[in-house]
Every structure is written in structure tokens, then in C-alpha cells.
Amino acid sequence: MMSSKQLALLSIPVLLLFYCNPKTLLTGVTHTSDVDSVLFYQQNPVADPFLDELHSNHGNSARLTTLLLPPPPPPPPDYREIQGFRIQLFAGTDSISALSVQNKVNNDTDDPVYLIHEGGLFKIQVGDYPYRIDADNMKLLLNSKGYDGAWVAKRMIHVPSDSSFVDSNMVIPPPPPPVSEQQPKPEAVTNQITDSTTAQPVQTKFKIQIMVTADELKAQQLQLDLENKFSIDTYYEQAGNIYKVFIGRFQTRADAEVLLKNVRENGYPDAWLVY
Length: 275
Fold this sequence. Notes:
Layout: H1 4-20, H2 22-27, H3 49-56, E1 79-92, H4 95-108, E2 113-118, E3 121-129, H5 132-144, E4 151-160, E5 192-195, E6 200-203, E7 206-213, H6 216-230, E8 234-239, E9 242-250, H7 253-265, E10 272-274
Antiparallel strand pairs: 1-3, 1-4, 2-3, 5-6, 7-9, 7-10, 8-9
């Protein structure tokens, strides 16, 4: 029998072999890779002032704050707003239909097309026209492209910031004709009344325009309707390829505005004063 001391001495070589190369002991393979040792190291702590303060001063409180920087202000718009006109093509509660109309109109015109949500309705409007005549011409063009329900709407419009458009509510007098054309031809005098005391023609200053159309028959029909409804002198004039329908001939603006209010309240809200 071997004593415990002898057994302990015999176990030392076995333990050394196990710790030096355990794979050889377990598998019997004597070939090893080039790596014959594993490097163990202790990671050095990295200083953190915030956490160190909490650990070293028990009972103290600390708070992290975040500084929120506001976004930069948006650039100023390159337009300004004035009272003008747009062509309205659609008004409804269905936003999908409004988007469909907007996409279609974008393909039919180069003028800006607006999708506006106001009063619970989605509206499609076209253009920014400081002057009514430009809006009327655009309306006729859209009518010819199949937009039968197009109509002129008065609202705030966008014009370039560096433009000098005047307010379209103002009555803008036409430019004076050339000197050679100062005397109108007898057949071209359509805006005169006769003073009963002198039997001389007196040039009128104000009249009310009801509509502009490219259809002369439509202008004639509207002229008859206005005469029957208001019993006031109604007429139309041709300007190029369009026809302008007017009612009334007035010397003073006050008299013209009385009729303008009556006309607007009785079925022609888009009528306007010209001279």
C-alpha cells in the first residue's frame, strides 16, 4: 500500500500535464496550434465624472438636461397676397376626388393648381389673376377643354414679391387712345347717352360688366335676359374673339354702384364695375 504522501507526489505530474495541455490529456492528440497560451487581462476603468459624482457623494442628486434648439425659421415667401381671381373647378367633401381633379388639371394647364381645404370642403382652383379679364379668358380655355363647371372666384392670390400689381378691386381706367384715334368712328360709339337739353352726345363713365364669352349667340341671349329682368339698357361689345356683356350707362359712380348691388343680388354675383 502506498501512503497518502506517495499518492500526492505521484498526482503532481498529472496535474501539471492537465493544466499545461488539457487537450492532450483528454484526446491523446499531441499536435497543437501555434497558439499555446491565452492572454487574460484586466480592463482599466474609464473615468465618468457623472457616475463618479453619484458614487462618491451619496445622497446627492443629479439631473441630466437636454438643450433643445428650435428649428431655423423658414425662408420668407417669394410672393405676396393681393385680392384677385382664380378659376374654381371642384368643391366637395371627397379628398380623393379632389386629388384626382388636381392631377388631371395639372396635365391640362401650366398655371398653378391649388388644393384648398376650407369650410369643410376640398376645392380645386387654378391660377393667380390680378385682373378679371385674365380670369375670364382662362375660364373660357378650361371650358373648351371639358371643364364645363368652371367659374371665376374672387379671393386672395399669390403674386411675385417684386411685382407692382394694384388691387383688382380698383376701377382701372383704360389707357388713352393714340392722338390719331381720339375721334371715334360713328359706328364705334357704343357708350354714349344723349343729353335731352342740348341734344348732344354725353360720354358715359361707368358701366357694369356681366360676362365675357367667346359665343356671340350666348352674349345675345344674356343681353335679352338682362333687359327683360332689369328693364335697363343692356348691350355687348366685341373685343377680338370674345364678347363682353354690359348693363347700364352712368355718369356717376354712385348711380352705377346702386345698379351693381341690385344685379349681384339678383343672380349675377360676379358682375363688376368698369369704365
